Amino acid sequence: QLQLVESGGGLVQPGGSLRLSCAVSGSTVDYYAIGWFRQAPGKEREGVSCISNTDGDTVYAPYMAGRFTISRDNADHTVYLQMNNLNPEDTAVYYCAAGRVLWLQQYTYDYWGQGTQVTVSS
After folding, report:
1. Is residue 29 pLDDT above 70, yes or no?
2. Angstrom distance (rounded) from CA 82 to CA 18
């Protein structure tokens, strides 16, 4: 069993930045990748980025356009999502999840956090 807890969300103005954290606890051998997903109001949840638990390989959704960066601190079992140049379309609940493959398909993720709200507004 794994537990994931997101933090770092909040209200930010357009053009601003936020860094989300995902703290992972439990049996760390049970997953291969940590992914970030988001769900905007009235929309389906979509993949943002994921990172391998072993070699640090990363995958980004094409629409990220270089604004988001995923990273990890294995010593603290924490994965980060640095988000820059935010715009109102980035407003969503952001979730982290632990999965079996380095991929942004949600069905490959078995453990999910509760989410953290990110609101981009002036």
Report:
1. no
2. 6
